[in-house]
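Postdoc handover notes: sequence design on the structure in folder B. Input tokens:
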């Protein structure tokens, strides 16, 4: 008698339930681990919150939407709310891809496509670091979904939803221009796309992009900085082979992000499998050739174009991050597999999938608890942001009689103090003041200056002393991490820049 794995039967009978269980399980793990174990936000989240706290229409870091949402989430529920916002973006991106996949390959193969995305590291480990790259994932996925409905299914209202998603994407990251260029290229090279461009709908809908971006465009015009993404001048001067090598080096990141997915595909294939054994087969109906071309194009071209854009602007990673360009990778593999997909070794594949789901957050939790006991710092999310912020806010108010409103010095430490202080002071980047234009004259308000200190001696670093002459260093303050282990205490040097109320304001 043929015995079928319960995993196969679950996917065959309840593909929608399988999708929601897999998606929500990943989101829950990556929400619980940072919420309970992170004493300070990871990555650039403190700077994202410091910029969002000012609610500007734009900044050196780009368009404002991700910064605004991060600040709103933090004001509502603290860092837990920021982590929840990040996972909501992942769930929304998965849902958009699942909906698109159902229209192209059917619901069962759509569930396969989402399960494969768990093997793409860009959709797991970096997601607690909420920012423009994380917010760009669902906006990109929904833009592709509405593009398919507008061109592939000929739904006229979808053009306006597509324009809204593209406008919000450009309000999140300038890398959205890469997707817009890819969409225009796809419409021009396909027969349905050229037919769609003849109609008035896409051109009328494009006005919505301008409407969404209008306040930010005004800020770009008034800031006087011009468009922030300038091509590097050496592109045409240096040898072409150097640019090609740099482009191939940029492609390493998206390639290695697919390693987990490749493992799942290899385990589920007929590699080293006896042909006489019975396997479960998932069959879909005929796949529209236009849908096949749609998936292949947007699974490959945006990633290649983003890597090229990163070379042209001399960025260290593909423009807009990696995950937003890879939202259709899992679906592309399913389309490539054909209309009939035999599932070999279902139990082994399920175990590997569960390991890929659990291993990243579990590794992060183990690293936070175990690495300090062997003297390794690792990812420094154990810094007590609340204790650090309260200490400097209380000392500033005790010495000056005024609440702390400005923090300067080392950018990452200052952003951490601005996050943890009860008064939520503004971040002032004294080394690059043009990046914090929300402060006209920091000396009138006074500030706390902070810097990392490896010694117990009170000494102002030369660069900070040059920018703030006369500032006296206080005895460095030592803080214990959430898990101290064998690590040295975290010492922060600091000084008080007293308010000068009678100082005339700088023009």
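Designed sequence:
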């Amino acid at each position: 008698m043929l015995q079928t794995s319960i995993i196969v039967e679950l996917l065959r009978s309840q593909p929608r339930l399988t999708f929601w269980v897999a998606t929500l399980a990943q989101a829950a793990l990556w929400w619980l681990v940072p919420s309970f174990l992170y004493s300070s936000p990871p990555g650039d989240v403190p700077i994202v919150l410091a910029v969002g706290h000012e609610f500007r229409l734009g900044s050196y870091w780009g368009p404002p939407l991700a910064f605004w949402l991060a600040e709103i989430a933090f004001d509502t529920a603290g860092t837990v709310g920021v982590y929840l916002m990040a996972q909501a973006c992942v769930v929304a991106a998965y849902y958009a891809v699942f909906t698109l996949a159902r229209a192209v390959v059917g619901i069962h193969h759509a569930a396969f496509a989402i399960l494969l995305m768990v093997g793409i590291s860009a959709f797991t480990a970096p997601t607690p670091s909420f920012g423009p790259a994380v917010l760009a994932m669902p906006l990109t996925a929904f833009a592709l979904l509405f593009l398919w409905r507008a061109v592939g299914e000929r739904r006229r209202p979808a053009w306006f939803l597509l324009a809204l998603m593209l406008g919000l994407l450009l309000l999140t990251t300038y890398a959205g221009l890469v997707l817009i260029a890819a969409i225009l290229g796809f419409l021009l090279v396909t027969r349905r796309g050229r037919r769609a461009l003849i109609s008035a709908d896409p051109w009328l809908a494009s006005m919505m992009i301008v409407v969404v971006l209008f306040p930010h465009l005004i800020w770009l015009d008034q800031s006087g900085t011009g468009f922030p993404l300038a091509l590097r001048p050496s592109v045409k001067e240096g040898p072409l082979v150097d640019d090609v090598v740099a482009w191939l080096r940029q492609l390493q990141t998206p390639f290695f992000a697919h390693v987990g997915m490749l493992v799942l595909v290899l385990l589920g294939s007929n590699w080293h499998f006896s042909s006489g054994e019975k396997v479960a087969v998932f069959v879909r109906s005929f796949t529209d050739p236009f849908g096949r071309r749609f998936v292949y194009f947007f699974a490959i071209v945006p990633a290649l174009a983003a890597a090229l854009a990163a070379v042209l602007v001399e960025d260290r990673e593909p423009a807009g991050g990696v995950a937003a360009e890879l939202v259709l990778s899992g679906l592309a593999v399913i389309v490539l597999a054909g209309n009939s997909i035999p599932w070999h070794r279902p139990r082994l594949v399920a175990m590997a999938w569960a390991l890929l789901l659990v291993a990243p957050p579990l590794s992060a939790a183990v690293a936070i608890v175990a690495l300090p006991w062997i003297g390794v710092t690792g990812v420094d999310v154990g810094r007590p942001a609340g204790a650090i912020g309260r200490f400097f806010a209380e000392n500033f108010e005790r010495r000056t009689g005024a609440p702390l409103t400005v923090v300067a010095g080392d950018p990452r430490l200052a952003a951490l103090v601005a996050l943890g202080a009860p008064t939520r002071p503004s971040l002032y980047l004294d080394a690059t003041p043009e990046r914090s234009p929300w402060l006209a004259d920091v000396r009138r308000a006074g500030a706390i200056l902070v810097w990392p200190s490896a010694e117990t001696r009170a000494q102002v670093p030369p660069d900070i002393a040059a920018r703030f002459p006369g500032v006296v260093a206080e005895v460095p303050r030592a803080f214990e991490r959430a898990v101290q282990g064998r690590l040295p205490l975290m010492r922060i040097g600091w000084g008080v820049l007293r308010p000068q109320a009678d100082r005339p304001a700088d023009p």
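Context for whoever picks this up: The mean pLDDT is 86. Don't rerun without checking with the PI first.
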